[in-house]
Amino acid sequence: MKILVAGGAGFIGSHTVVELIGAGHEPVIMDNLYNASREVLSRIRTITGREVPFYQTDIRDREGMEAVFQAEKPEAVIHFAGLKAVGESVRRPWEYYDNNITGTLTLVDVMRKNGCKNIIFSSSATVYGDPAFVPITEDCPKGQCTNPYGWTKSMLEQVLGDIQAADPEWNVILLRYFNPIGAHASGLMGESPNGIPNNLMPYVTQVAVGKRDRLHVFGDNYDTPDGTGVRDYIHVVDLAKGHVCALKKLAPGSGLSIYNLGTGHGYSVLDIVKNFEEATGVSVPYVIDPRREGDIATCYCSAEKAERELGWKAQFGIREMCEDSWRWQKNNPDGYESAT
Ligand code: NAD
Ligand code: UFG
Known about the structure:
The chain is an alpha/beta fold. The chain has helices at 11-22, 39-48, 62-72, 86-91, 93-113, 148-166, 200-208, 236-249, 269-280, 304-310, 318-331; strands at residues 2-6, 26-30, 54-55, 76-79, 118-124, 171-177, 179-181, 215-218, 230-231, 233-235, 256-261, 267-268, 286-289, 298-299.
């Protein structure tokens, strides 16, 4: 199937492109490169032996996207394109609503005008807010988001659901990701954050490689076994494979579906430090800092619905997640910038 991968040069998108090729699909990447590097295209070529068509196009650029749809005629879109830095979204809400909401509305309009009504959307565990219960199932009520980024995900779920309800020709899958970490086993692709990493694993690997002194653990007084925050970390390659499985579900008449993609296991911040040290033999010094505003204590899912209905289950454990994150960081200390 020809699939337009919006945001396909980013962390999760690039790994998904590789898995799509492995499964016999024809991905086309559309990305404005706001948070990605062209270098990823050559890494994809090295891993897969395939040259993937690439368009440097913004999802708010109607004419640019129209040209891509005319040229490529995709059957489905996997939509990763968005801004995702939680703290930045609090400081720059307009930019987040414009990029994520205006962008998605424009993308969806161009899709329907071109007769493409199949979309898989990157949503997030953040839509559950402070979850009403764990493990979180898909029917757990959505919660109050603590930042504009989270609201864009929650609102876009509503938008896509309403569009599907009004026009049953649409097939919409909302994938709620938990915490993707890890990297491609080749060490050629991974997460390449700009500046100070917001997320735990890139910070851990930057401490391990000597770019930062120590990890700052945000709070050790949560109601969790060791007091630090508990999350459901999932290997990015497993997450990518989840999209390949979801594509099979995008059949005519499939309507609207929602799936959690996680492992179902919760690890604390200190569990991650310990597992990383054991898997890599590299020590990660840390200090305990105050809690980070907006953080919750515990978030992990039940991924049983995805297993039952998509035939998907995460294969990699925390050891592989740590080993692969480390291989990527060690081989590319400055991310894709190391190669340019
Ligand atoms: P990423 O920043 O690496 O990838 C997003 C890509 O979209 C980037 O390559 C960026 O350049 C591109 N992009 C952004 N705005 C665009 C626009 N207006 N037009 C075209 N391209 C644009 O992020 P990621 O971690 O790969 O996340 C992918 C998606 O999954 C995002 O929508 C994110 O919100 C969502 N998500 C991520 C996580 C996570 O922890 N990484 C968790 C839940 C959901
Ligand atoms: N943490 C630290 N130090 C750091 C970074 C994080 O102690 O330097 C802690 C956090 O307090 C939290 C845990 O590590 O307890 C995980 O934090 P992340 O920032 O890696 O991930 P979050 O769960 O806060 O959020 C991430 C994405 C969101 C997404 C959410 C659920 O940033 O966009 O996962 O998918 F919505």
